[in-house]
Amino acid sequence: MRLTRRRVATAAATVGIGGIAGCLGGDAGETAGASTDGATARSSFFVFGDLTAQVAGDAATTELLVPVGQHGHGWEPGPRIREDVRGADLFVHGMPGFQPWVDAITRDLAADGAGVTTVDASDGVDLLAVDSGRGHEREETHDGHDDEEPHDHGAGADPHFWMDPLRVMDAVENVRRGLVAVDGGNAAAYAENADALRTRLDGLHDRIASTVAGGSTRTVLVAGHNAHRYLADRYGLDVVSLTDASPDDRPTARDVERARRLVDERGLQYVCADPLESQRAAEQLVAETDAEAVLPLTAMPGLTDEWDADDWGYVDVMERVNLPTLRRVLDA
């Protein structure tokens, strides 16, 4: 079941697979209380919502709570969203600290003893520690220390694991177990759908790896926050970002100057920017250097109107937005 416009509303999230009213023990498929009418699952973030919809298929109802066009990191829900989460059987979200409003909602649910099963999509994923990861030297003050401190984001871990399709496979398993926990009667359907999604993810991984292998460069300049370290880690890329891991960080004049030098030193033709974030710094770099154009490279902080209209999910965006950009940037 895809996340169509009719299913998109507004957002929430928590950790591991656990019921707010009590933790799940053993394999999720052995948990009692499965729905015979099909479960309702709600998600706090576009990528998590799409994975949930893909694994659920026609066996459960899924809903993404963040509105189309909104940035999933910074969006704040109204009171109605808390009630929407309370009405769900399953709530899929990211790590603590990733979306602070989610942490507040799940704390309230726990305090009230609400019977909502929660799944942290990142549970068990090999996460990278938060790091500036800008891929080039940082300015130092006269005493030799960095003049900027890394922004702590996602409780000390980089939350953007979905930029690596192989890590996403672990999240798919988390979602499958969560759905089975609340709807064991459809366990076979969830397993089949999860297997199909893993096959698509494996194919996506192969296409990205092939593109990187065929490229003449490994440098990718992103005029935005540092959301692509997992992509760099998996495929051996040198992804240079203007700011650190938090989308709240804004590039300074010094950040732009470092990027300008990088374009000149490495002869970069393109500057990348997320379609859901400001294009200002990217356009400035193109205007002030020999770079030719701004290309879209997205960490999918939300869902654009165009992606929604085309019914695109995570794999679609990776294949139709990010992969073509990588081919051009890497000269593959």
Automatic annotation (TrEMBL):
Annotated signal peptide: none
SUPFAM superfamilies with a match to the protein in the record: Helical backbone' metal receptor
Transport as UniProt keyword: yes
Keywords in alphabetical order: Signal, Transport
Superkingdom per UniProt: Archaea
Family matches, as InterPro entries: Bact_metal-bind_prot9, ZnuA-like
Region Disordered: start-end pairs: 133-156
GO molecular function, one term: metal ion binding
Alphabetical GO biological process terms: metal ion transport
Chain intervals with Basic and acidic residues compositional bias: 133-155
PANTHER family: HIGH-AFFINITY ZINC UPTAKE SYSTEM PROTEIN ZNUA, HIGH-AFFINITY ZINC UPTAKE SYSTEM PROTEIN ZNUA-RELATED
Family affiliation: Belongs to the bacterial solute-binding protein 9 family.
UniProt protein name: Zinc ABC transporter substrate-binding protein
Lineage: Archaea, Methanobacteriati, Methanobacteriota, Stenosarchaea group, Halobacteria
